[in-house]
Amino acid sequence: MAAGDTLRRVRQRGFIQCGVSQGLPGFSSPDERGRWSGIDADFCRALAAAVFGNAEQVRFRPLSAKDRFTALQSGEIDILSRNTTWTMSRDTQLGFNFVGVTYYDGQSFMVRKAAGIKTTADLAGATICTETGTTTELNLADYFRSRGLSYRVLSFEKNDEAIVAYDRGRCDAYTTDASGLYATRLKLANPDANMILSEIISKEPLGPAVRQGDPQWENIARWTLNVLLESEELGITSENVEEKLESDNPRVRRVLGREGAYGSTLGLGNDWAANAIRAVGNYGEMFERNVGKNTPLGIERGLNAQWTEGGLQYAPPVR
């Protein structure tokens, strides 16, 4: 595979091949008709809209945590958008680059309310279920070893297998990123009988990744995410984007391709960002639609609020 030709191959093929989870509500999960939804799925639709002007020119490839990196390295997918933590080893040793953070997260634990477990200290000697091939296993080891606590791990290749094991009482707790716990709880036989501990034991910046060696494709992915963040800060939404095309605000005009030639520097049309916003809305719309307080997950913006609202989401300017 020649370096630098991802955009050409994607255009020849007619769609983007997007690697997603095997089903994590709020991030990437299929409905009964097979249509994918969630923040990670929406990002791939935004990318398709930026490249093709059509958000539907994307196909979703469900991948286990174990198989996701091989699929990206081998070229089976063009982008991995699958609740994946950006770490140094992944960024420097696996042959791909992260393009930004779609969700600032941290690892926690889900336990049964009847067990009387209130803090992570109460998990001493517990059996904990998790998915193999993730950062959670090392985080567990670091956390319990540093506190001199004993524990036992039951690891499963598929997330759904770990959830079933927890639901059947094979382990005392289930651990993954806190966002994943909110989604996982919805799959349990009795969600209300379970609770998520308030303690966070790690930093888990989740975001999309692309193969190294193709700076053009990396820039397209990175700046598609950036304009979704920037458009929220500027008040550009899926509903008012047409009106904003006539804005006198120079920042708005640059994002929407009314001034400058920022699309052409990526190899795209100057309406690339406007198309992405039309397709999925700005970052805030994506968040609230998929995981926000009015969804079954009910997650507050927290660290994922804009920097102007006390959060960490901050996009470099389009200029």
Largest beta-sheet characterization = 5 strands, mixed
Shape: globular
The helix content, as a percent range, equals: 25-40%
Number of helices: 12
Strand content: 15-25%
Give the CA-CA distance, first to last residue: 33 Å
Strand order of the largest sheet: 10-9-11-8-12
Provide the succession of SSEs.
HEEEHEHEHEEEEHEHEHEEEHHHHH
Spans of at least 5 consecutive residues with low confidence? none
C-alpha-based Rg, rounded = 20 Å
Query: Structural class, please?
Result: alpha/beta
- Mean pLDDT, all residues: 95
Number of strands: 14
Explain the overall architecture.
There is one protein chain. The chain is an alpha/beta fold. It has twelve helices and 14 strands. It has helices spanning 6-13, 39-52, 68-74, 88-93, 136-146, 159-167, 178-185, 215-234, 241-244, 250-255, 272-280, 283-290, and strands at residues 16-20, 29-30, 36-37, 58-62, 79-80, 96-98, 103-105, 107-112, 127-131, 152-156, 173-177, 194-196, 204-206, 209-211. The longest helix is centred in the last third of the chain and has 20 residues, at 215-234. The chain is globular, with a radius of gyration of 20 Å.
Provide a brief overview of the structure.
The protein is an alpha/beta fold and 319 residues long.
